[in-house]
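User: Please predict the structure of the protein below. I'd like the answer in structure-token form so I can feed it into my own downstream comparison script.

Assistant: Understood. Taking the following sequence of 192 residues as input:
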Amino acid sequence: MRIAGGRLKNRPLYAPAGGATRPTSDRVREAIFNVLAHGIEGFELEGARALDLFAGTGALGLEALSRGARFCLFVDEQASARAAIRRNADTLDVIGQVKIWRRDATRLGPCALAPFGLAFIDPPYGRGLGEAALAELTAGAWLEPGAVVVVEETARTVVAAPEGLVVLDRRVYGDTQVMFLRRAGWHSPLLP
């Protein structure tokens, strides 16, 4: 597993042994970032504040940093995942651009930080945790107006968008679906 693009392209990422984490494949990660770079009007990854929920190895948030995000908050309850994120961030020399929290992503509570412009949700599949985390992001004011949220789930799982989020796109890669959602409050600069 490697960083797929940006200034850290091809740098290896560490993943803990065992099945406790399920890293997003390089192919799916590359596809996600292609959509973020070219498929969402008015979205700019450069300088974004990112949030990586159920972070696992941190591959999604670290990829965002490689491609120009300025900060990423990683959230995972598993000690092995947090250790992998810390190790990867240190190896990639981006430790000063990250925070790593031990927290249940479905119980974040109100945001005490500046809101985020990009969020990744990659929960254990098939448990409804993605929907719960989406609801928590909106209820807790974690997202700035126009923020983009990327949710990864099984292709057969139905993920409902909570009020305040609009589904922009849904892509399927094998047995994995990736949904792109946007928080209300964004308007095209071309419209009055």
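That's the full token string. Residues 26-38 form the longest helix (13 residues).
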